[in-house]
Amino acid sequence: MKTETLHVTETEERILNAALKVVNDVTISGTRMHLIAEKADMVQSNVHYYYKTKQELLKGLQEWILEECYDMQQVSKKSSKDTLEDQLHIFFQQKKTLLTKKKEYDFAEIDFLVQTRIDADIRARFQEAYAVWRDNIREIIIRFCPNMDETDKELIPYMAVSLLEGASIQVLVDGKGFDADSYFAYAEEMVLEQIRIAMEKKEG
Q: In which residue ranges does the UniProt entry place its DNA-binding region annotation (predicted)?
Protein backbone atom coordinates (compact mmCIF):
# COMPACT_ATOMS: atom_id res chain seq x y z
CA MET A 1 0.00 0.00 0.00
CA LYS A 2 0.99 3.62 -0.49
CA THR A 3 2.49 5.00 2.70
CA GLU A 4 4.05 8.38 1.81
CA THR A 5 2.27 11.57 0.84
CA LEU A 6 3.84 14.12 -1.48
CA HIS A 7 3.79 17.71 -0.25
CA VAL A 8 4.39 20.59 -2.68
CA THR A 9 4.23 24.33 -2.15
CA GLU A 10 2.01 26.62 -4.20
CA THR A 11 5.03 27.75 -6.22
CA GLU A 12 6.17 24.19 -6.84
CA GLU A 13 2.70 23.28 -8.05
CA ARG A 14 2.79 26.24 -10.42
CA ILE A 15 6.10 25.01 -11.82
CA LEU A 16 4.85 21.42 -12.09
CA ASN A 17 1.69 22.53 -13.90
CA ALA A 18 3.86 24.45 -16.34
CA ALA A 19 6.16 21.45 -16.78
CA LEU A 20 3.16 19.23 -17.50
CA LYS A 21 2.04 21.59 -20.26
CA VAL A 22 5.53 21.76 -21.76
CA VAL A 23 5.90 17.96 -21.74
CA ASN A 24 2.55 17.68 -23.53
CA ASP A 25 3.63 20.30 -26.07
CA VAL A 26 7.16 19.11 -26.88
CA THR A 27 7.58 15.72 -25.08
CA ILE A 28 10.13 15.01 -22.35
CA SER A 29 13.07 14.99 -24.76
CA GLY A 30 12.16 18.48 -25.96
CA THR A 31 11.51 19.90 -22.50
CA ARG A 32 13.89 22.64 -21.36
CA MET A 33 14.00 24.58 -18.11
CA HIS A 34 13.60 27.93 -19.88
CA LEU A 35 10.41 26.68 -21.57
CA ILE A 36 8.98 25.69 -18.19
CA ALA A 37 9.92 29.08 -16.74
CA GLU A 38 8.20 30.84 -19.64
CA LYS A 39 5.07 28.71 -19.26
CA ALA A 40 5.01 29.39 -15.50
CA ASP A 41 5.60 33.11 -16.13
CA MET A 42 8.67 33.04 -13.89
CA VAL A 43 12.34 33.81 -14.31
CA GLN A 44 14.40 30.68 -14.86
CA SER A 45 16.45 31.21 -11.70
CA ASN A 46 13.27 30.80 -9.64
CA VAL A 47 12.59 27.44 -11.26
CA HIS A 48 16.17 26.36 -10.51
CA TYR A 49 15.71 27.38 -6.87
CA TYR A 50 13.12 24.61 -6.47
CA TYR A 51 14.48 22.16 -9.03
CA LYS A 52 18.21 22.30 -9.67
CA THR A 53 18.13 20.25 -12.87
CA LYS A 54 15.69 19.09 -15.53
CA GLN A 55 16.05 15.55 -14.21
CA GLU A 56 15.09 16.65 -10.70
CA LEU A 57 12.08 18.53 -12.05
CA LEU A 58 10.93 15.56 -14.13
CA LYS A 59 11.21 13.36 -11.04
CA GLY A 60 9.01 15.82 -9.18
CA LEU A 61 6.55 15.92 -12.07
CA GLN A 62 6.23 12.15 -12.26
CA GLU A 63 5.70 11.87 -8.50
CA TRP A 64 3.16 14.71 -8.58
CA ILE A 65 1.15 13.08 -11.39
CA LEU A 66 1.12 9.75 -9.56
CA GLU A 67 0.03 11.51 -6.36
CA GLU A 68 -2.78 13.36 -8.14
CA CYS A 69 -4.07 10.07 -9.56
CA TYR A 70 -3.88 8.41 -6.15
CA ASP A 71 -5.79 11.28 -4.53
CA MET A 72 -8.54 10.99 -7.15
CA GLN A 73 -8.87 7.32 -6.31
CA GLN A 74 -9.14 7.98 -2.58
CA VAL A 75 -11.89 10.58 -3.08
CA SER A 76 -13.88 8.09 -5.16
CA LYS A 77 -13.45 5.39 -2.52
CA LYS A 78 -15.08 7.53 0.14
CA SER A 79 -18.21 8.05 -1.94
CA SER A 80 -18.56 4.49 -3.28
CA LYS A 81 -20.54 1.59 -1.87
CA ASP A 82 -18.58 -1.14 -0.15
CA THR A 83 -19.23 -3.90 -2.67
CA LEU A 84 -16.87 -5.80 -4.95
CA GLU A 85 -18.41 -4.23 -8.05
CA ASP A 86 -18.37 -0.67 -6.76
CA GLN A 87 -14.85 -0.85 -5.35
CA LEU A 88 -13.45 -2.23 -8.61
CA HIS A 89 -15.46 0.31 -10.60
CA ILE A 90 -13.39 3.08 -8.98
CA PHE A 91 -10.28 2.06 -10.94
CA PHE A 92 -12.03 1.96 -14.32
CA GLN A 93 -13.94 5.19 -13.70
CA GLN A 94 -10.78 6.99 -12.64
CA LYS A 95 -8.90 5.93 -15.75
CA LYS A 96 -11.79 6.95 -17.98
CA THR A 97 -11.90 10.36 -16.28
CA LEU A 98 -8.17 10.84 -16.85
CA LEU A 99 -8.44 9.91 -20.51
CA THR A 100 -11.49 12.05 -21.24
CA LYS A 101 -10.99 15.06 -18.95
CA LYS A 102 -7.30 15.14 -18.01
CA LYS A 103 -5.54 13.74 -21.05
CA GLU A 104 -2.40 15.73 -20.27
CA TYR A 105 -1.77 13.46 -17.25
CA ASP A 106 -2.02 10.30 -19.30
CA PHE A 107 -0.02 11.61 -22.26
CA ALA A 108 2.78 12.64 -19.90
CA GLU A 109 2.63 9.19 -18.30
CA ILE A 110 3.16 7.55 -21.70
CA ASP A 111 6.15 9.80 -22.31
CA PHE A 112 7.57 8.81 -18.93
CA LEU A 113 7.02 5.14 -19.79
CA VAL A 114 9.24 5.56 -22.85
CA GLN A 115 11.96 6.92 -20.56
CA THR A 116 11.93 3.74 -18.45
CA ARG A 117 14.15 2.12 -21.09
CA ILE A 118 17.02 4.46 -20.23
CA ASP A 119 16.22 5.89 -16.79
CA ALA A 120 16.35 3.47 -13.86
CA ASP A 121 14.82 5.98 -11.42
CA ILE A 122 11.75 6.57 -13.59
CA ARG A 123 11.41 2.81 -14.07
CA ALA A 124 11.62 2.24 -10.30
CA ARG A 125 8.85 4.78 -9.64
CA PHE A 126 6.62 3.08 -12.21
CA GLN A 127 7.34 -0.31 -10.69
CA GLU A 128 6.31 1.01 -7.29
CA ALA A 129 3.17 2.70 -8.66
CA TYR A 130 2.06 -0.43 -10.54
CA ALA A 131 2.72 -2.55 -7.46
CA VAL A 132 0.50 -0.25 -5.38
CA TRP A 133 -2.19 -0.38 -8.07
CA ARG A 134 -2.13 -4.19 -8.16
CA ASP A 135 -2.02 -4.44 -4.36
CA ASN A 136 -5.09 -2.21 -4.03
CA ILE A 137 -7.04 -4.37 -6.48
CA ARG A 138 -5.78 -7.55 -4.82
CA GLU A 139 -6.90 -6.31 -1.40
CA ILE A 140 -10.43 -5.80 -2.73
CA ILE A 141 -10.47 -9.31 -4.19
CA ILE A 142 -9.17 -10.83 -0.96
CA ARG A 143 -11.75 -8.96 1.10
CA PHE A 144 -14.73 -10.02 -0.99
CA CYS A 145 -13.43 -13.36 -2.30
CA PRO A 146 -11.16 -14.69 0.47
CA ASN A 147 -11.40 -18.30 -0.72
CA MET A 148 -10.23 -17.58 -4.25
CA ASP A 149 -7.23 -19.57 -5.45
CA GLU A 150 -3.95 -17.78 -4.72
CA THR A 151 -2.89 -17.87 -8.37
CA ASP A 152 -6.08 -16.06 -9.41
CA LYS A 153 -5.63 -13.51 -6.63
CA GLU A 154 -2.19 -12.81 -8.02
CA LEU A 155 -2.98 -12.72 -11.74
CA ILE A 156 -6.33 -10.90 -11.92
CA PRO A 157 -4.80 -7.60 -10.69
CA TYR A 158 -2.17 -7.88 -13.43
CA MET A 159 -4.94 -8.39 -15.97
CA ALA A 160 -6.87 -5.37 -14.66
CA VAL A 161 -3.86 -3.04 -14.77
CA SER A 162 -3.04 -4.17 -18.31
CA LEU A 163 -6.57 -3.37 -19.45
CA LEU A 164 -6.41 0.05 -17.79
CA GLU A 165 -3.00 1.02 -19.13
CA GLY A 166 -3.69 -0.37 -22.59
CA ALA A 167 -6.43 2.21 -22.98
CA SER A 168 -3.90 5.05 -22.65
CA ILE A 169 -1.83 3.79 -25.57
CA GLN A 170 -4.87 3.35 -27.81
CA VAL A 171 -6.15 6.85 -27.07
CA LEU A 172 -2.72 8.32 -27.78
CA VAL A 173 -2.55 6.54 -31.14
CA ASP A 174 -6.20 6.80 -32.20
CA GLY A 175 -8.19 9.01 -29.85
CA LYS A 176 -11.04 9.62 -32.28
CA GLY A 177 -11.66 5.92 -32.83
CA PHE A 178 -11.66 5.04 -29.13
CA ASP A 179 -15.04 4.75 -27.37
CA ALA A 180 -14.07 5.21 -23.71
CA ASP A 181 -17.51 4.43 -22.27
CA SER A 182 -17.86 1.14 -24.14
CA TYR A 183 -14.25 0.09 -23.59
CA PHE A 184 -14.17 0.61 -19.84
CA ALA A 185 -17.59 -0.97 -19.31
CA TYR A 186 -16.42 -4.01 -21.29
CA ALA A 187 -13.03 -4.17 -19.54
CA GLU A 188 -14.65 -3.90 -16.12
CA GLU A 189 -17.07 -6.72 -16.96
CA MET A 190 -14.15 -8.86 -18.18
CA VAL A 191 -12.45 -8.55 -14.80
CA LEU A 192 -15.65 -9.28 -12.89
CA GLU A 193 -16.34 -12.28 -15.11
CA GLN A 194 -12.84 -13.60 -14.49
CA ILE A 195 -13.45 -13.25 -10.75
CA ARG A 196 -16.72 -15.19 -11.09
CA ILE A 197 -14.97 -17.92 -13.08
CA ALA A 198 -12.21 -18.14 -10.48
CA MET A 199 -14.73 -18.46 -7.65
CA GLU A 200 -16.78 -21.09 -9.49
CA LYS A 201 -13.60 -23.06 -10.15
CA LYS A 202 -12.72 -22.91 -6.45
CA GLU A 203 -16.21 -23.89 -5.31
CA GLY A 204 -16.46 -26.66 -7.89
A: 32-51
Q: Quickly count helices (H) and strands (E) in the chain.
A: 9, 0
Q: How far from chain centre, in Å, is Cα 48? A: 27
Q: Which domains does the chain have, with CATH numbers?
A: 61-203 (1.10.357.10)
Q: CA–CA separation, 109 vs 66, rounded Å?
A: 9
pLDDT in tens, 163-188: 999 998 888 888 788 899 999 999 99
Q: What is the pLDDT of residues 85-115, one digit of tens each?
A: 999 999 999 999 888 888 888 889 889 998 9
Contact 109, 126 (CB under 8 A): no
H/E stretch holding 111? helix 103-115
What is the mean predicted confidence (pLDDT) over 118-136?
92
Q: Which of 24, 23, 107, 25 is nearest to 57 (CA)?
A: 23
